Amino acid sequence: MPAGVRTLGDRSAFPRDELGDAADLVARRLLGTLLVRSEEDGSDTVVRIVETEAYHQTDPASHSFRGRTARTEVMFGPPGHTYVYFTYGMHWCVNVSCEPEGIGAAVLLRAGIALTNTALVRQRRGERARERELLAGPARLTSGLGLDGSWNGVDLCAPAAPLRLESDGLVVADAGVAQGPRVGVRQAADVPWRFRLADVPEVSRYSRHPKAPPRP
Predict the structure, then answer these.
(1) Given phi > 0 = left and psi -120 to 50 = alpha, else beta, which region is 60?
(2) Percent of the residues in the chain that have a pLDDT greater than 90, as a whole number
């Protein structure tokens, strides 16, 4: 069966060199790829990534803007590793480090569609979670996959990693991608570094930070 947004094709490891380019290019490139978590029972939970956001050290909205710290170390490391952080005192978010080592950049994984182990994903999210919102949003994505700070620094390009990026050959045409400002950032609020599959409802709703500067 050929790969489609909601169908799974033959899986292969995602090449690390695809993550070495500029953060916004990598954010676009990650649309349609697979985030795979190995479960304790030996199965894989496979999620199709349908929404991303790019961040870079020259960007005041990025955690790496103020330089290398213990918190942002992974962002400055080699591409293809998880940068997992806690936000609003309640949510975990998972990012993919990108660009060459020494540059603080990463792509936030904002939303996905579960292709396998959907019952387990729903169990983690709770029975009251609506289908469209199951993994729509970075906190829902990490919740559905059972990710927290202990997953920080995982090499997503290592074939035996418990969390990894894979590809199944899905081709996402430019016409099928929507691009616009990032969700809820106060600084650089109009930088168009949010990418999503245009015809997929399982993505975040756009909201502008209430303290962001007025649009020019």
Answers:
(1) alpha
(2) 93
